Structures are given as structure tokens and as C-alpha cells.
Amino acid sequence: MAPRWIIPTYWRGRSGCCSSPASVLISPPYAARPRRRGAGDVVRFRKAAPERVVRSRKPAHPAIVTVEEFVEAQLLRRSRAAGGFAAGRKLERGPKNTKRVYPLRGRVRCGYCERRMEGTPRNMRTYYRCAVRTMVPGAPALNGHPTNVYLPEEAATKALNTWLNDLFARENVDRTVSALVASQEGRKNSTPDAKDAAKKRLQEAEGKLRRFQDAIAAGVDPTAMVEAINEAQAQRAAAQAKLENAATLRTTCRTQSDRTLHHRPT
User: Fold this and answer.
1) How many distinct structural domains can be found in the chain?
2) pTM confidence score
């Protein structure tokens, strides 16, 4: 089979590719020494190891993100990648921005895989759906999971309205008030000492993460610290949730609950 440069049709539309004398001199076809297809040098750019990366001490432009945010994002990506499918199965389906309003958004879970179901309109009706195609391959919940699981929103809201009407009916108000007051007994244990303990745990977790970031910046392999980083992030998230819950904590006494429920507008 003749090389492509010998075929006359090869040069159609390529009249300008070798217009200058220099291009003629360096072109293999003009020297009767064609370069075989597939032969020649191949340049591949490989990502350098973290310890071989050279960083400038003087910023070239204003920073978009801080160094701490960048390192934390890299650690989060590496921790998820190191876990493989096992880590992917634990990820919670996040909310999506939609134009429609779903009253039960983020509150309906699939009975097969325990994931949040997403709202979807079909034939002028609203459903909450769990599609098996969105699951991680190899997940144990795939066994016996239907292709699509649908829950009509009308059926769920109708049952909820019936339950709420029964719960706050005139003859059941006293029982409901007693249940509300009893549910707040555990919240009263939130004292300044508990807040101080949560702040201390938060500071310790943030200190650990800073030390891990410094170690990675010094050249330590991040994959060797995945478990410790994940544990520190979980401790920080738990401490932050404890502080936020303590800051917004409000309890109501039985008198306030009675007044609110007995004198509600009809």
C-alpha cells in the first residue's frame, strides 16, 4: 500500500500547508523520505508527584480560594476516590434546583435502598421516584431493587393530612401537648458546659485537619491519611451540628403549648 503523501488526492486542499521555503525544506514528503504513519516521537505529559511540584512564592494574581480551602477540597476528593465504590455507596443524594415545589422534598426515602427519592412530574401528577440507574454499580441494594420505584405525592400528602387532623383534633389536643412537652425533656440537658465541650471538640478537630494539611503540603502521601482525615472531618461536623443545635434551641412549656393549640384560628 502506497504512503498517503504519494496519493494525488492527499494534497487536495493542502496547497497552503507548505507555502514557505522553510516548510518545504523541513517537509519529509518533499525530501522523498516520508514519515511513516504511527512512527515518530510521542510526547505525553504526566502529572508530577506532590513532592516534585515547584510553587512560586510570589502570587501571580489575587487568590480565588485560600490554600486551606484548596487542600481541603483535594483531601475530600482523594478520600472519596480512595474508598472506591464502597465510599460512593455512602454518599447522600444531594438536592437539585428545580422550578417546581415539592412539599416532601428530601423527606421521602426508598424502602429498598434507603436513598432519598427525587420528585418528578408525570402526566400532570407529581411522583417521588427512585431510579436504579442512578445507583453505584455493585451496590448490595441492587439485588431485588425494581427499575423505578414511584410514590404518588397525592397519596402521601392525603395520609399526612389525615394523620395531622387526627393528631390536632379537639379531643386529642391534651394528648398531643403531653407528647410535645415530653419530647423536649432531652433538650433541657443542653447547658453551657455542653456548649464548651462541643467548642473544645470542634477546636481539636480543626487542629487535626490543619496538621494534616501541613503534612500533605510537606510531601506526605494523602492516601495514607485518608482514614484519619475522614475521622477528623466527621468529628468537626458533629461538633458544629452540636453547637448549631444548642444555639437555636428553644423549648416551650405546657402552658405555652396549651395556649397555642387551644386558641388556634378555626
Assistant:
1) 1
2) 0.42
